[in-house]
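Step 1: inspect the first sequence and its tokens.
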Amino acid sequence: MSKKLAGNGLWESSRMMLPQHKEQSLSTREQATAAANGAAGIRAPSPPTAKDIEVIRQYIILPVALQIVEKKNREVERSSQTLKSLYAVATKVLAQHMREDMQRCRKSLIKQQIRIFEPSTDGLDIHYRFVCRGIEDEFTMTKDFLKSQVSLAIGQYTNNLIAILRGTGSR
């Protein structure tokens, strides 16, 4: 007979735990951690707010929109359209505004203690894992939803540019 199975070794080698015991163990551990952190003056991590989720969404959408605008800019510069210089300048201005907003998003993420990791895809969905003030979560978008949000973002930037050119908008 093997050493593990000798005597009470069978029970000792078992790693099975009832769900009720696991829940109780986890809640006891969380309470002890919260009590220790409270005594040390450390706040419990707060879950992501709606503002945090919006910044994460913008951080995901803006690079895709910027990539599309830059691609269109290269296409326009190589074309023989009559107004190609106007289109090229417009796409460069759009790209510059998007870069500025991306920089604001990055700073906001740092300030709000949010880290976003590389996405993973499973066919129709794109999953972005993030850590927000110590709480790990996942942000999921379908590819169709991302495309529609990118189109809306480019449309908003275009409308803002037109408003600025008319003198009615502000940046």
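Step 2: inspect the second sequence and its tokens, then contrast the two.
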Amino acid sequence: MKALIFIFLITISSCNETKNTQSKFDLPESDFVILPFNKDWYWIFKNVKSTELTQYELIEIEKILNIAVQENNERQRKYLQKHNQEYPKNTWTETGFELELKDKKRQYVPVINEKGEKEIWINFFCNDWESDDWKKDLMIVHDGGNCYFNIKVNLTNKTYSELRINGYA
């Protein structure tokens, strides 16, 4: 009987584990690069020092990115619903600004800002143009819609800002 209770307790405790807890950053190395900050990228950050990222920090960044994408997509869903109500003869199936993290290449630029906080600018894009140039240089694309976007993550404060999604030509 004690063995049965013991097995039951183990089963219950294992079911209570948080399913969203990520213990490993599982993006393939072929899909991301961590670039050291270059002073020529003054338009991204001012008065910062380049820094590194750890495996744990990549996991924490991913959690913040998931929240940013979820919040953006909820705003887009509401906008889509409003548009379709106002223009029933011209309904859309999407706004074109919904985001996905899956199948995107990423460039991480980590820095320490003036306040001593760790911030990361992350550049997302769908296509690497069959070249490894993106592993050395920032990929700056005009237009292209939600295939291209970038965001700043403040890892110290666990916040994000400056989510920018490219427009359409």
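Step 3: confirm your contrast with the notes below.
Confidence is low (pLDDT under 50) at residues 3-20. Residues 153 and 160 are 4 Å apart (CA to CA).
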